[in-house]
Write a structure and sequence with these properties.
single chain; alpha/beta; seven-stranded parallel beta sheet; 41% helix
Length: 210
């Protein structure tokens, strides 16, 4: 009887978690979403890729009023030092930011099978970082490094730990199909912005063409 009772409790808990996950995913597909209005400044976490991803992100950030997005935490892969220099150049007149490195989830040309292990390691490494940071906004544009961080933030939202808004900006080079990161985050990002009309409705109902 005790084992049956425990099994029933386990099933109920699983159903509650799955219901919460479905609810959070459903909210990301709503046209109107909760806006950040309870804070004067938005604590922002920015995920950098390498090469073109970083160049696009730096260009996006150059249009932001940093007074409204503060403090800023930049996250980059441990093998990507170019992004660090780009951030320092962008932030040369500011002090309300910091740069953190994490394990890269997938190297260039790394097989998908071996990337499962490295992605898992990067995900586990991301948990204490996000637990400490708890940003209001997570901003990313496609590097593989962003996937573990976004998944952890999504799970934090499921368990009411944080209410971070996830904004994913698809790379300019993606014209007809979403990137692998875009396809993974399609269901958990609050806003998914694309830069080509061919990636907007009706093919991808959730995307926002800008």
């Amino acid at each position: 009887m005790y084992a049956i009772h425990c099994a029933h409790i386990f099933v109920v808990i699983c159903v509650m978690i799955l219901t919460r996950i479905c609810f959070v995913i459903f909210r990301t597909f709503k046209t109107e979403r909760t806006q950040i209005t309870s804070v004067d400044r938005v604590k922002t976490l920015i995920i950098l890729g390498s090469g073109g991803h970083t160049a696009e992100m730096i260009r996006i950030l150059s249009y932001l009023d940093f007074k409204n997005y503060s403090p800023r935490t930049y996250v980059h892969a441990d093998t990507d030092m170019m992004s660090v220099e780009k951030v320092k150049e962008l932030e040369k007149d500011n002090t309300d930011y910091r740069i953190i490195k994490i394990r890269r989830s997938r190297e260039i040309r790394q097989s998908y099978y071996t990337s499962i292990y490295t992605t898992l390691c990067a995900t586990l490494e991301s948990i204490p970082l996000l637990w400490t940071e708890r940003p209001h906004l997570l901003l990313c544009n496609g590097p593989g490094t962003c996937v573990p961080l976004c998944i952890i933030i999504f799970l934090f939202k499921v368990f009411f730990i944080t209410q971070t808004t996830i904004v994913f900006i698809e790379s300019f080079c993606r014209v007809h199909t979403l990137s692998l990161s875009g396809k993974i985050l399609y269901y958990i990002a609050d806003y998914l912005l694309v830069q080509w009309p061919s990636l907007s409705k009706p093919m991808y109902k959730k995307t926002i063409y800008v």
